[in-house]
Amino acid sequence: MFLNKPERHRVRVSSNAPSHPLYQVGEGGPVTTSRQAAEREAFRELKANYYAEETQQLEAPKGNYSNVGRCRLSGVLLGPTNHHGYQPALRKLYEARFSRRMDFNEFLRQIEVVSDPAVIEAWKTQVSCVTVFRTTQEAEPVEFKSAQEVEAHFRAQYLEKCIRSGKTLEMSGIASRNVGDRQIRDAIRSAWEKERSFPAQTVNRLRPHFQDAGLHIWKHRKRILFVSTVRPVRFGSDAQSVSRHIADILNIIEASPKCTRADFSTHLLKPHEAEADFQKIKAALASDLHWLIGSGHVIEFHDGTFELPLAPKEAAKEDAETGRRGNAEEEQAPLAEEAVAEAEVKSQTPPAHACGEAAV
């Protein structure tokens, strides 16, 4: 329930190597092991916090243009080959999308010249719409006419205070789903899967909150954990001294675990249906059952079934037989004070490594 939806949890990532700090974009943003990667992401992630965009309609380019250049790979229209903006647009597209994949000459071979009048008109419409950027954090707004100018201003004025670094950083669950750093992404996935298979640390993290609300966490068959307002307490050696109705209820549950109210009616009420004081017997049985449930001597589960609490020896045996897996996982992932999942990430420079922890 907590891990399936990212808005319900947060993720804490810790580095075990002091010489390899972590970096984060803004507060609660994605975490990475590379400062350069954080700087590249900062403008894209935080641009809207510092700049407002406005689209202005300008006059369409005048002149008789017979063709326009178009990138086959992206479909971007670059303009007529004899237009003054063609070469800057060509270089801009290459640097933004293709410089890491191919050299410039190879990129040029992907440019086609199109003479379709409809494509030429589409280019005119495209260049007549201009996006203007204005600062929002300054007393006198500064205006920029290109994204490159805005990014240069951002790097000079805001970048330094937007990058956080440290040994331990925390981000939102939503940001953790968009982490670009492969090492941290793999660590989060590993921690998430481990906690999904055995959520002991999540439970330990939630336990004090349940206790503050007056709730109890307890184990039953197959080490399943339950939460209720009453802590189950096995009837002691004085079970034989209780009333007949209470003894009957305990004996039925002992003989038939997961019995229901219908079973109580069949065994304890049906034989007395013809008696004059049947309603009193029925009320007494209901009262005794209610007392047993409220005292923790009988467990009423959410599906309407009843069982007795495990005896101390039986509970210990249950833990010994079925707890090996859980104990092994707890030993492999020691519980930190505020952690609910952890995973190891190997660093680019052995033997340093980082540890990712998911925290609620």
Rounded mean pLDDT is 82
The unreliable regions are 325-356
Strand order of the largest sheet: 11-1-17-16
| Number of helices in the DSSP assignment | 14
Structural class: alpha+beta
From the alpha carbons, calculate the radius of gyration and give it in angstroms.
34 Å
Report the principal-axis shape. Answer: elongated
Helix content: 40-55%
The number of distinct β-strands equals: 17
Proportion of residues in extended strands: 15-25%
Largest sheet features:
4 strands, antiparallel
> How far apart are the termini?
12 Å
Detailed description of the structure:
With 360 residues, this protein is an alpha+beta fold. The protein has helices at 35-50, 86-98, 104-108, 117-127, 147-157, 159-162, 173-176, 182-197, 200-212, 244-255, 261-269, 278-295, 312-322, 324-332, and strands at residues 10-15, 22-25, 31-32, 51-57, 68-71, 77-79, 111-114, 129-135, 143-144, 163-166, 168-172, 216-219, 225-228, 299-300, 306-307, 341-346, 353-359. The protein contains 14 helices and 17 strands. The protein has a four-stranded antiparallel β-sheet. Strands 3-2-10 form a three-stranded antiparallel β-sheet. A three-stranded antiparallel β-sheet has the order 4-8-9. Helix 10 packs across helix 11 (261-269). The longest helix has 18 residues, at 278-295. The termini are close together.
Topology (elements, then pairings):
Layout: E1 10-15, E2 22-25, E3 31-32, H1 35-50, E4 51-57, E5 68-71, E6 77-79, H2 86-98, H3 104-108, E7 111-114, H4 117-127, E8 129-135, E9 143-144, H5 147-157, H6 159-162, E10 163-166, E11 168-172, H7 173-176, H8 182-197, H9 200-212, E12 216-219, E13 225-228, H10 244-255, H11 261-269, H12 278-295, E14 299-300, E15 306-307, H13 312-322, H14 324-332, E16 341-346, E17 353-359
Antiparallel strand pairs: 1-11, 1-17, 2-3, 2-10, 4-8, 5-6, 5-7, 8-9, 12-13, 14-15, 16-17
